[in-house]
Amino acid sequence: MEKVKELHPQTGNRVFRDQLVTQADLQVFKEDLLLSIKTLIQNNNSQLAKKWLKSYEVKKLLNISPGTLQTLRSNGSLPYTRIGGIIYYDAEDINRMLTDRKHNGIKEPWPASKKDNSHKNYRYAK
C-alpha cells in the first residue's frame, strides 16, 4: 500500500466527515486506482521475466535445499550453465521440469508384489 502512496502522493485535499462523494470523485478515484495497479503489475512483471536465475534464486523459488538443487543438477533433471564459479539456470527449464513432474492428484495403486523364491531353488555345487 505504501508503494501506491509513493506513486500518487496526496494532493493536499482534506476529507471531512460530512463531505459528500460525487460520481465524478469516484471516477477519478477509480482511474487513479487502476493506474496504480497497472504500474505495480508492470514493475512485478519486469522482475519475474528474468531469463537466467542464480542458484540462490532457484532455491528460494522452489523452496529447496542446496543438496536438493545439487541432486537435480547431478541426475540431469535441471540443466544448468556454469560461468566461472557461478551456476545459472534457465527459467524456461525450471518451468519445463515442474510441468513434466506434474501429477493429476490421483494415486495409482501399487502393483502387486510377487515374492521372489528363486533363491530357494538354487542348488549349491558340491
Strand order, largest beta sheet: 1-3-2
Q: Assign the structural class, choosing from mainly alpha, mainly beta, alpha/beta, alpha+beta, or little secondary structure.
A: mainly alpha
Q: Supply Rg.
A: 29 Å
Helix-strand topology string? HHEHHEEH
Overall helicity: 40-55%
Approximately what portion of the residues adopt beta-strand conformation?
5-15%
Query: What's the rounded overall pLDDT mean?
Result: 79
Please tell me what the overall shape is: elongated
What does the model show?
This protein is mainly alpha-helical and 126 residues long. Among the domains are: 2-9 and 19-48; 52-100. Helices cover 47% and strands 9% of the residues. The protein contains 5 helices and 3 strands. It has helices at 2-7, 23-48, 55-62, 66-74, 91-100, and strands at 52-54, 81-83, 86-90. Strands 1-3-2 form a 3-stranded antiparallel sheet. β2 (81-83) and β3 form a beta hairpin. The chain is elongated.
